[in-house]
Amino acid sequence: MGKRRCVVAALAAIMLMMELAALTVAENRRSMLSNGLGMTPPMGWNSWNHFGCNIDEKMIRETADALVSTGLSKLGYEYVNIDDCWAEISRDDKGNLVPKKSTFPSGIKALADYVHKKGLKLGIYSDAGYFTCSRRMPGSLGYEEQDAETFASWGIDYLKYDNCNNDGSKPTQRYPVMTRALMKVGRPIFFSLCEWGDMHPAEWGAPLGNSWRTTNDISDNWESMISRADQNEIYAEYARPGGWNDPDMLEVGNGGMTKDEYIVHFSLWAISKAPLLLGCDIRNMTRETMDIITNKEVIAVNQDPYGFQAKKVRMEGDQEIWSAPLSGYKIAVVLLNRGPVRYSTTARWDDIGLDPKTVVQARDLWEHKTLKTTFVGNLTATLRPHSCKLYVLKPIA
Ligand SMILES: *[C@@H]1O[C@H](CO)[C@@H](O)[C@H](O)[C@H]1NC(C)=O
Ligand SMILES: *[C@@H]1O[C@H](CO)[C@@H](O)[C@H](O)[C@H]1NC(C)=O
User: Fold this and answer.
1) Positions marked catalytic
2) Are 175 and 208 in contact (CB under 8 A)?
3) 8-state DSSP, 243
4) Known Pfam families for this protein (predicted)?
5) Does 213 share its domain with 352?
6) Where does ligand 2 bind, in terms of residues with CB under 6 Å?
7) Domain closes at, from 302, 323, 352
8) Residues 145-164 as b or e (16 or more Cβ within 10 Å = b)
9) Looking at the 3D structure of the chain, how many domains does it have?
10) Are the C-beta atoms of residues 126 and 78 closer than 8 Å to each other?
11) Residues 227, 214: Cα–Cα separation, whole Å
12) What is the per-residue DSSP string for 308-332?
């Protein structure tokens, strides 16, 4: 009997070891990109939304300066990301990408050094195709290892990898080639898959990248912004530290939306654990833009260590409730009025995962105040058209 039990125990131990080994393999497979980056959503700036192809090294340096002088870098905005159009149309005779001589005469390495000296990080852009989307520079298809080595040698910290002008093969065939190339060069480079959500990259992006676009490009208007938030929400389950859904970069400060709409934009991106990549001209921002993007409490929701992406927990016509658990037993809640008229909207405890009897303290993150009364069962707010409230709820009994 004793011997038998011993055999059983030994067998159980062996099976447990095999299971652990299988788990380790699964874990390795889960992440081909073990670069340790993106434990919270990346924060920084990207040139595309405001400048398109009109970029040069002077304005990139000035943007880095402005990120520091405005205090934005202290709040976590660290990446300075150059988008499309930074290179010559032809590679050199060794097949290397060449920074565009007319706009980046000092080269990208010099820019990386400049940015690093300020405590910031430099991002760059390429494409899993023969040309980038602008068609003004080559893509990296077929040159993945060479380009990854070039980026690493320059001191690049972030790569946005677009999907234009490819060979017709699936992104699931082309993106892993760059993932492997980046791993091979050894430098930790945040890898942003910009596949536009066509093939549901949330379902396969986690082992390959630190973020994956779930949508087509955003434009600076309410319809575009809100529809990107909607498309991105579908994949909430897939977001976690190390890999994030990406509904595209921020338009706050570019002038196409009202203040309330930009607050909705920033609130939804924050609670959705989206990358907070500013897309305005950092050198020339209004007070209003600064107030929105420097809201520390809203940034803290985005950067919460748990990394749970908010889900819509109630939708009634134009009224929606989005919520996500935060660390410390707190809950972030957005009450959103998408409609054209004022409306009174209610967040109910049973929708957001609280026991109906829980007594809650509510912090209004845009008013920067804790509401005087406590709440049981629900919380109601009257919302202007195209506006929202963002609360952090803290159970106190
Ligand atoms: C600064 O921004 C304002 C709008 O807020 C714009 O009218 C002005 O042209 C901008 N200045 C520069 C130098 O871009
Ligand atoms: C909110 O809760 C209160 C009780 O605390 C209840 O009287 C009221 O009907 C609730 N409102 C909604 C809209 O659920």
Assistant:
1) 162, 217
2) yes
3) B
4) Melibiase_2 (PF16499), Melibiase_C (PF17801)
5) no
6) 346, 348, 376-378
7) 302
8) bbbbbbbbebbbbbbbbbbb
9) 2
10) no
11) 11
12) PPPEEEEEETTEEEEEEE-STT-EE
Q: What is the pLDDT of residue 12?
A: 56
**Ligand 2 centre distance from Cα of residue 346 (Å):** 9
The pLDDT, as a whole number, for residue 9 is 54
Are 9 and 56 in a shared domain? Answer: no
Give the nearest ligand 1 atom to 284 CA: 1
- Dist. CA 164–CA 161, nearest whole Å: 10
Alpha carbon distances (Å) from 180 to 36, 174, 184, 195: 15, 11, 6, 17
E-only strand ranges, 216-326:
244-246, 276-278, 311-316, 319-325
pLDDT grade, residue 100 (50/70/90)? very high
Determine contact, residues 109/153, Cβ cutoff 8 Å: yes
Residues 44 and 7 both lie in one domain:
no
Q: Helix or strand or coil: residue 170?
A: coil
Q: In CATH, what number is assigned to the domain containing residue 247?
A: 3.20.20.70
pLDDT tens for 334-390 read 999 999 999 999 999 999 999 999 999 999 999 999 999 999 999 999 999 999 999
Q: State the residue for tokens 């060794």.
A: 94
Whether ligand 1 lies within 6 angstroms of the CB of 286 is answered as: yes
Residues 224, 276: one domain? yes
Are residues 259 and 316 both part of a single domain?
no
Same domain assignment for residues 286 and 379:
no
CATH label of the domain that carries residue 14: 2.60.40.1180
Residue that terminates a domain, selected from 257, 286, 302: 302
Element (H, E) at 184: helix 171-185
Determine how β-strand 378-383 pairs with β-strand 343-348. Answer: antiparallel
Are 373 and 243 within one domain?
no
CA 263 / ligand 2 centre spacing (Å) = 27
- Same-domain pairing of 55 and 195: yes
- For tokens 């919302």, name the residue: 383
Q: Domain of residue 39: give its range.
A: 31-302
